[in-house]
Design brief:
The chain is an alpha/beta fold. The chain has helices at residues 13-24, 40-46, 52-60, 80-87, 142-158, 176-194, 207-216, 228-241, 279-291, 295-311, 325-338, and strands at residues 2-9, 31-35, 63-68, 92-98, 111-117, 127-129, 134-136, 163-168, 201-206, 223-226, 249-253, 258-262. Bound molecules: 3-isopropylmalic acid (IPM) and manganese (II) ion (MN). Residues 232, 236 line the site of manganese (II) ion.
Length: 339
């Protein structure tokens, strides 16, 4: 039995979450889903975007599923997802860029993994006003750079990838990205020394060049590892290559916890209309199952979604269909149940 903290959030969050839970309830595994609150609507009701209770529940469960939240429109209240990543020590953000059949995309054969450092960089939230304007502090530590580089090599080994690429801007950010790239190459050398037979190639790109090659020649990339903001930007770019944010899942991983969320936001413009594509949330649940070590179940769930995408009968409007969020999820559930 797995205890899962479920944070639907607001906007389309609750819709894609309910669709996904509906599928997971058909699993052979047993889940105890415990609902917790966060986000804008929670803020309106309770005065906080992230109640302590939610943090405690997430800390004490086997994994957390997070839907989407709307940002509070003031400059003082930190976003609840950032606060949660911090509170749970989720230092690695795994963002697969994967093509799926039946989904209109720029490329139909991509399977790249972006590994985004998730705890520091320009997300340190250390900003201040100055006389001229404002400054932000870009914190890069050897510890976090070393740690995220290791995640990249471990994930490459796990997934049978043969190339790990570091992305930075060390020609300008000479000190901060100097520390990042030095840590990367040190870890790379360790992995070469430990087991050269695994034959993982390593290289590096400046972030601007990486952004271009992602569009013109993405097949040169397998695993990309980068700092926080670069990873944020490149992962949206990558999603754009494989059908958009509706298809992009993510995993936030730390030493003790894992939180799984679609890359998309709360999309208030379509909230409540039952047209949100549940695929990114379903694929985030796949990442959760992998994290729990339930690889067979993760595979079954992804295959069920692939079948629905291939059939093309029960798709949301963004995928060219006319089905609702729940109708598409029902179709996935049916195949998942029977497999
Ligand atoms: C993401 C989002 C968040 C981020 C925002 C909502 C703070 O864009 O998960 O990519 O920048 O990390
Ligand atoms: Mn983002």
């Amino acid at each position: 039995m797995y205890t899962i903290t479920v944070i639907p959030g607001d906007g389309i969050g609750p819709e894609v979450m309910e669709a996904t839970l509906n599928i997971l309830r058909a699993s052979d595994l047993e889940f105890d889903f415990q609902e917790a609150r966060a986000g804008y609507v929670c803020f309106q009701d309770t005065g906080t975007t992230l109640p302590d209770e939610t943090i405690e529940m997430a800390k004490n469960s086997d994994a957390t599923l997070f839907g989407a939240v709307t940002s509070v429109p003031d400059q003082k209240t930190a976003g609840s997802i950032l606060a949660l990543r911090k509170a749970l020590g989720l230092y690695a953000n795994l963002r697969p860029i994967k093509s799926y059949p039946g989904v209109e995309a720029v490329y139909n054969d991509l399977d790249i993994l972006i590994i985004r450092e998730n705890s520091e960089g320009l997300y340190s939230e250390i900003e201040e006003y100055t006389e001229e304007g404002a400054t932000a502090l870009r914190v890069i530590t050897r510890k976090a750079s070393d740690r995220i580089s290791r995640v990249a090599f471990e994930e490459a080994l796990k997934r049978g990838k043969t190339r790990v690429t570091a992305v930075h801007k060390a020609n300008v950010l000479r000190k901060t990205d100097g520390v990042f790239r030095e840590a990367f190459w040190k870890v790379a050398k360790e992995y070469k020394d430990i087991d050269a037979s695994k034959g993982i190639e390593t290289d590096e790109f400046y972030v601007d060049a990486a952004a271009m090659f992602l569009v013109t020649d993405p097949h040169r990339f397998q695993v990309l590892v980068t700092t926080n903001l670069f990873g944020d930007i490149l992962s949206d770019e990558g999603a754009g290559l494989v059908g958009g944010l509706g298809m992009a899942p993510s995993a936030n991983i730390g030493d003790n916890n894992g939180l799984f969320e679609p890359v998309h936001g709360s999309a208030p413009d379509i909230a409540g209309t039952s047209v949100a594509n549940p695929a990114a949330m379903i694929l985030s649940a796949c990442l959760m199952l992998q994290f729990l070590g339930e690889h067979q179940e993760a595979f079954k769930l992804e295959q069920a979604l692939i079948n629905v995408l291939k059939q093309g009968t029960f798709l949301t409007p963004d995928l060219g269909g006319a089905s609702t969020t729940m109708e598409m999820a029902q179709a996935v559930r049916k195949i998942f149940e029977e497999s």
